[in-house]
Design goal:
Elements lengths: L14 E9 L1 H10 L8 H4 L12 H10 L1 H5 L6 E10 L7 E14 L4 E11 L2 E12 L23 E7 L3 H5 L12 H6 L9 H16 L7 E8 L7 E10 L2 E8 L2 E11 L3
Antiparallel strand pairs: 1-3, 2-5, 2-7, 3-4, 4-5, 6-8, 7-10, 8-9, 9-10
């Protein structure tokens, strides 16, 4: 680890180099497989004869560069970083193919005491205007203590019984499939790489787990229509093991949906909120 790291509010407003993301039907089908979609129940996500329909969280593949490039942009050295929270708002549904230009900037810097948290906000635009807005939070482990603002508290899960539950299976090869959508971090496929960074074994990508949760919301609340999901956010609480089950618990609160995703008794995604049009 680097001996020191200087963080300050002056970093807020730092822009990342813009990028362009293109995709085809093959990319959206591969993503759907990577986040657990299976035939025949989810053919609309997997068969080009049905569109294919595009999961809204596919937009986060276009946004991944903003998380990946943060280390170099802010000169974070070798301090370990982890993706700790994510939000996404769709201005309109994604097409089965397309191209967006994405811009991003640092919009907040928080001091949790032991760690630092950096928020990066981004927007994806095509020829018709904005397509999505996203906000990613990255924890810089061991970089806290610079007298910064502590940041917002996490939302607690509802105490009432859930209104719906969706149980899914994380297959042994799940991370190997998902990484083909762009995040090739070896910690998710190579046990030696995972142990090097203090993990017992490989684990699922956080954004892949969020994709599982998005499918759960779509299937339980929106009768399988991905276009209904217009926003989603969560915190990444704990890593998800492969070859296991996930259970997403869902609560309706007026026009908002609350959710959390568990692996056994361990909460993997916390502070989940979403909006689904017409639901």
């Amino acid at each position: 680890m680097s001996a020191s790291l200087t963080l300050s509010d002056a970093m807020v407003g730092t822009t990342l180099a813009p990028t362009t993301f293109q995709w085809t039907e093959k990319d959206v089908i591969l993503y759907a497989l990577g986040v657990g979609a299976r035939p025949p129940d989810e053919l609309r996500l997997l068969d080009e004869h049905y569109g294919p329909a595009v999961l809204p969280t596919f937009a986060l593949i276009a946004n991944w560069w903003a998380v990946k490039d943060l280390r170099a942009t802010l000169d974070l050295g070798s301090f370990p970083i982890v993706h700790s929270a994510q939000s996404l708002r769709l201005d309109r549904p994604l097409g089965a193919s397309g191209e967006v230009s994405v811009t991003a900037e640092v919009t907040a810097l928080w001091d949790t005491g032991k760690h630092a948290a950096i928020e990066v906000s981004s927007v994806g635009v095509d020829g018709e205007g904005p397509v999505f807005h996203a906000s990613s939070q990255t924890m810089v482990l061991g970089a806290g203590g610079f007298d910064g603002t502590r940041g917002p508290k996490a939302d607690e899960a509802p105490q009432a019984a859930s209104d719906g539950v969706y149980t899914d299976t994380v297959r042994p090869e799940q991370a190997a499939i998902y990484r083909l959508s762009g995040d090739r971090n070896p910690m998710h496929i190579d046990p030696a790489a995972a142990r090097k960074f203090g993990f017992e074994d490989v684990f699922l990508h956080g954004l892949c787990t969020l994709g599982f949760a998005a499918r759960a919301l779509i299937n339980v609340v929106a009768d399988g229509d991905p276009a209904a999901l217009t926003s989603i956010s969560c915190r990444f609480a704990k890593p998800v093991k492969l070859d296991s089950q996930l259970r997403t618990e869902i609560w309706r609160q007026g026009d908002k949906i609350r959710f959390q995703t568990r692996q056994g008794d361990v909460v993997s995604l916390s502070s989940g909120t979403a909006t689904l049009a017409g639901c």
